[in-house]
Amino acid sequence: MWEDTILIVFISIFTALLGEGLTWYMVYRTEKYQKLKTEVERQSKKLEKRKEAHGESIDKQQKKKIERDEEKLKNNNRDLSLVKMKSVLFIGFAFTALLSMFNSVFDGRVVAKLPFVPITWLQGLSHRNLSGDDYTDCSFIFIYILCTMSIRQNIQKLLGFAPSRTASKLSGNMFGAPPQQFR
């Protein structure tokens, strides 16, 4: 069981490195991506400085400038996401094939023993394709997903591919618009 778990961690590291390598080859090294990334960084810093300089007391003209800068930043972030899109789709298809292959190798095998019983809506994932009712038994897919989620983020940071905190903070998130403190 330990051997399987350690093998899954290595598979996760390998696939994360492979994914980042392919992304670097298809996206990060291109001139268009580099230019957009530099522009987003520059605009993020400019916008942050402008917001800090004016604080709470802001007139209508400054508010308009800040809104214009936020709109430019949002558009550049959208363009950056579109540049990454073809790579994400290609890598998604490749990893789906890899995942199904590894899933068939570990099908029905308990690869770890959890020290707790997962909440009900996670039991289908943590106990996938395992026989029996011991929900502390863990399947390949659950360990792989957990490892990949944590390892890929760290590899992106280590290789310098993760977006800067400034750009991430100012550009909002995928669930909605960025917080508007000057409206």
Helix % is: over 70%
**Order of strands across the main sheet:** 1-2
The SS-based structural class is mainly alpha
Sketch the major β-sheet: 2 strands, antiparallel
Approximately how much beta-strand content do the residues carry?
A: under 5%
Terminal Cα span = 56 Å
Low-confidence spans: 173-183
Structural description of this entry:
- With 183 residues, this protein is an all-alpha fold.
- Helix content is 72%, strand content 2%.
- It has helices at 2-28, 31-54, 60-105, 120-126, 140-159, 165-171, and strands at residues 112-113, 137-138.
- The protein has a two-stranded antiparallel ribbon with strand order 1-2.
- Helix 1 (2-28) packs across helix 3 (60-105), helix 2 (31-54) packs across helix 3 and helix 2 crosses helix 6.
- It starts with a helix and ends in a 12-residue tail after the last helix.
- Mean pLDDT is 84; it is low at 173-183.
